[in-house]
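Annotated sample (chain length 233).
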Amino acid sequence: MNNPYQHIQQEAYEANMQLPQLGLVLFTFGNVSAADRSLGVFAIKPSGVAYENLSPDKMVIVDFEGKTVVGDLRPSSDTLTHAVLYKHWENIGGIVHTHSTYATAWAQSQRNIPIFGTTHADYNTVDIPCAPPMNDEMIQGNYEYETGFQIMNHFQEKQYNYQEVEMVLVGNHAPFTWGKNAAKAVHNSAVLECIAKMALLTEQINPQAPKLKDALIKKHFERKHGPNSYYGQ
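Output written by the structure step:
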C-alpha cells in the first residue's frame, strides 16, 4: 500500500538519528520534525522512544494544528510547539529542539549569545536571541503550544526575520532551530551548540571581550549569504 508520508518519515528519521551522533542529545532528549506543506503535515519523533529503537515508520504524522494523522505512538511532547511554528512561519520545512549542553546553559542564564567572532557571523548578523521565560499564565495553560508563541512574540519584538535568524534560546528552557528542511535545521542546531561553547570560553578567557566589529560581521555574513556570495561551490 502506498504511503504518502514515507518521504517525510524518512527525512525525520535520518535527521533525528543525527542528534546523538552530533552529541546534541542524551537518552531520549530532543526531537526533529520534517514538514510537507503540500500535504499540510509534518513527521516527528515519537515521545520517549530511545534513538536506537527508532525507524522511519515510527515517525508520527501530525497536522499543523498538532493533531495526529497517522501513527500508533504518541508524538513528541514538544509537538505543539513545532505545529505553531509551522503554521505561522510558512517558509520553514524542518524544526529541531534539543537540550544541548552549551546552548541550554545560555538559555538557563537567560542571556543572548553575543556575536564575538566570525563563526557566529557566518550564520547571523545579530546576537542569538534568548526569549524570556514564559509568564505563569502561559505556563499553566497549554505549555507547549504557548512556547511557540513565546518564540514568535520575541522575534516580533526584536524585529528579527525567522528566515535570517534560524535559531533561538527559550529562557530557562533550551534551544530551538529551524530551516528549509530537517537536515538544515539539524545543521543549525549543531552550529548553535558550537557558537554557544565558543562564546562561553571567550568570556572565560576575557570577560571584557568586545563584540565583533560591524565590518567583519557584514563581510562574513555576506560572503556566504549576500547577493555576491562566493563561499562554497
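Annotation: Residues 6-225 form a domain with the L-fuculose-1-phosphate Aldolase fold (CATH 3.40.225.10).
Annotation: Residues 182-205 form the longest helix (24 residues).
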